[in-house]
Design a protein that fits this description.
This protein is globular. Helix 1 packs parallel to helix 4, helix 9 runs antiparallel to helix 10 and helix 11 runs antiparallel to helix 12. A three-stranded parallel beta sheet has the order 1-3-2. The N terminus is likely disordered. By secondary structure, the chain is mainly α. It has two domains: about 90 residues, no CATH class; about 190 residues, Hypothetical protein af1432. It has 14 helices and three strands. Helices cover about 60% and strands about 5% of the residues.
Length: about 300
């Protein structure tokens, strides 16, 4: 399978702005632990994102995703060229870097060795990226991994592996068409999904990871829809929820429409356990419907 199709660290960032705006944007990235590799040379095949387009009230984020996928599928280097000045540039650079953070992944000491590389390769091999829903799930898995490390820079190996595998069950049940909207009880559907995913995760990891790690990862995957007092489970929930808003919500709305999406926004917001995760949403670019639905949910008193 082509290595050009959405492999980690397969993109670069170029900022087209005056030097003071460029420095401010780079400082904002560093403050958020984001360090995309920088490109200085403009190319015809660059994915150009103007701040005026990114910040439009009627923005369609999937258009930028499609441009990225086309660039990846052509092979060779992929560069985002972000164009703007001042605060608009800063907001766009941060928003782009967060939406596509899977392409310049953070790796702490727990994920910096060849054993974690083996896990990444095993996870990647499960995904037939020519299928749009599978590609979306693969990107989501990488994004949840990255949110896990963003929220907890010392995140353990177990919770990072669980982030990668938490939705692996969809490869069996929803690779070609989504079915969750047909579930008579959404919470029960999600709990069953998590339990079956743990069984699939165990089968994949059994031959490449230590038994204690496998058991801990599977325990997290099995319970990832139901946070409790376990801090790593709470971290996984927060990362999963942030990834929905930051990466998946636009596609979710396009696929399911307003009614099911409004329910999902409510369900996902209520899964978030930490104030840090709620604050992280401030940097996330949301389409209008998602932002308005989230504002309505936020206005409700928390239980």
């Amino acid at each position: 399978m082509s290595a050009s199709v959405n492999e980690p660290a397969s993109a670069r960032l170029r900022i087209e702005a005056c030097e003071s705006s460029k420095r401010a944007a780079q400082d904002a990235l560093r403050a958020r632990g984001l360090e995309p590799p920088m490109e200085l040379t403009a190319r015809d095949e660059d994915v150009v994102i103007a701040s005026a387009a990114w910040l439009r009230s009627d923005v369609r984020l999937l258009e930028f995703d499609h441009a990225l996928h086309e660039a990846q599928d052509r092979g060779g280097p992929c560069t985002f060229a972000v164009v703007g000045e001042g605060d608009a540039l800063l907001r766009t650079v941060v928003g782009v870097a967060l939406r596509y953070q899977r392409l310049w992944p953070r790796r702490n000491v727990q994920a910096g060795d060849v054993d974690f590389d083996l896990v990444l390769r095993a996870h990647r091999a499960l995904h037939a990226l020519e299928k749009p829903l599978v590609r979306a799930d693969y990107e989501h898995a990488l994004d949840v991994w990255q949110w896990t490390v963003a929220l907890s820079p010392e995140a353990s190996r177990a919770v990072q592996v669980a982030a990668l595998f938490h939705d692996i069950e969809r490869l069996a049940s929803e690779a070609d068409v989504r079915i969750e909207q047909n579930a008579p009880d959404y919470s029960t559907f999600k709990v069953d999904h998590a339990r079956r995913g743990a069984d699939m995760t165990r089968a994949v990891l059994a031959s490449i990871a230590e038994p204690a790690l496998v058991e801990r990862v599977c325990a997290l995957v099995a319970r990832h829809e139901r946070p409790d007092a376990d801090p790593e489970l709470a971290l996984l929930n927060d990362a999963d929820a942030l990834s929905f808003f930051a990466l998946n919500s636009a596609g979710f709305f396009a696929y399911y429409g307003p009614e099911h999406t409004a329910m999902k926004v409510d369900y996902t917001w209520k899964r978030i356990t930490s104030e840090r995760a709620r604050r992280a949403l401030e940097d996330v670019r949301l389409e209008r419907f998602i932002g308005e639905a989230l504002d309505r949910v936020r206005a409700q008193p928390r239980p």
